[in-house]
Design brief:
7 helices; 17% strand; alpha+beta; 8 strands; two-stranded antiparallel ribbon
Length: 241
Amino acid sequence: MAAVRSYDLELRGIGLKPHCRKQDISVGRSCIFLARLAICFVGVLCFSVIAHAGGYKLGSQDKLKIRIVEWQVVEGTFLEWPAVSGEYSVDTIGMLSLPFVGQLAVTGKTTAEVAEVIRAKLQQKFGLAEKPEASVELIEYRPVFVAGDVREPGSFPYSPDLTVLKAVTLAGGTSIISKQRTERELINARGKLDVLGNERLYLLVKRARLQSEVRGEKEISLPEEIAQRAKYLAVKADEQA
């Protein structure tokens, strides 16, 4: 029963209906494997969704390249701001520290949003008539962490086209031990399912016998959906006796 419950919980945990009927056992191995895979790497999926929902959202450990320039009307040229321009990393609490700008909370913002904040801060800081131009380029994504039944769990660089299967590949693929355990649990689950099926059979017929007794009937009236099944008829004979 523990194996069946474990299997149910694994599937329910990712929003799937558990398949505990005997006719579905043939796909049990695939279901358990996919359930575990999805649970282990749900973080990768969430990361991918965030990265593509309205643009990549910055977070801790992202590395940025920032360039600030100001248009000089008289000279007709752009003046670079080397004191601010450069490469920066988002710290562990999601803050970006820039000279003259200070600390900016950038978690959940896009590079375009951060660039606009930097422009406004610099204009206010130096009392400029116009905002300077700012470009914020993401040069290195924060890593993703792969754990669970893989050969080499750990952190790996993220890329926009990263999927669960690609993350598993980066981690060396699934372990042989995991596959063997899945097969063993499947065999145990099949045995438990047979036992539970027989118990259910007996209880259905027993309930039908008690209901017939309450109605004062001499014969057991089985529900229509089970009345013609050979196994139920054998148990019915015992209950009738």
